[in-house]
Amino acid sequence: MPSGTRSRDRLNLKGRVGEALIENIFRRAGYKVARLGRESQVQQMLRTGISEFLPDFLVWKAIDPGDGSVSSLNRVLSVEVKYRHNVPKYLERFGAAFLSDVAAQWPDLYVVIVTDHPEPSRSCFQALDLRGYDPSAPPITRDLHEVSELDIYRTTVAEYEELVNQIFSVLGSPSLGQALPRRPLHEIGVHDDGAHGAGAADR
After folding, report:
1. What's phi and psi for 62, nearest 5 deg?
2. Which residue, of 27, 47, 88, 128, is most buried by count of CB atoms within 10 Å of its CB?
């Protein structure tokens, strides 16, 4: 197989693994998650005709209305996941163009970038928030656990950063026949009830 094809296959695989990791992070944070990919049954319901773009997920979570009533409200967000080896380089070359294309249709979109080569002191999971998007300003990411409105704990993110390091090192190795990480890929989607709450003191 040509090296270029192998490289594309590895990038595609990293992208799919990144989606699985982000999906489970949101589930651990108490969100319900629905996929919106091209195979999704809801894609025609959400497509506006302006663009072919659809985010990877819709996520929603019950929130306290704050007035003492028993009724609850759901906060619904759209999430796009991208794997990028070099986040600053991607943002510099393509970030502004991508955001300008989708901002009008998806003003509440969160773009979560997964990387196995974060900058020093940065997370493997970084987010762009389109609310208040300013096309004249350079796009700047925040580490996922620092996006306070998402309410995702630092301990949860740290656990999945370990998975990024384990899994992506295998995907980047010369031979994919090496031993897989301690937690197999099929276990990424397992939801561990209560685990997110255990990290409440360490956001």
Report:
1. -65, 140
2. 128
How buried is residue 132: exposed, middle or buried, by Cβ count under 10 Å (0-12/13-18/19+)?
A: exposed
How far out from the chain centre does Cα 76 lie? 15
DSSP string across 35-69: E-STT-TTHHHH--SS-S---SEEEEEEE--SSS-
Q: pLDDT tens digits for 135-191?
A: 888 899 999 999 999 999 999 999 999 999 999 988 876 655 444 445 555 555 545
CA Rg value for the chain: 18
Q: Looking at residues 44-54, what average pLDDT do you find?
A: 61
Q: Would you tell me how many other CB atoms lie within 10 Å of the CB of residue 10?
A: 15
pLDDT of residue 179: 45
Q: State the Cα–Cα distance between residues 172 and 31, nearest whole angstrom.
A: 31
Give me the mean pLDDT over the 38-42 stretch: 50
pTM (2 decimals)? Answer: 0.79
H or E stretch including 199?
A: none
Domain boundaries, the chain: 3-176
pLDDT at 59 over 90: yes
Our measurement of the distance from residue 180's CA atom to the centroid of its chain's CA atoms, rounded to an integer in Å, reads: 23
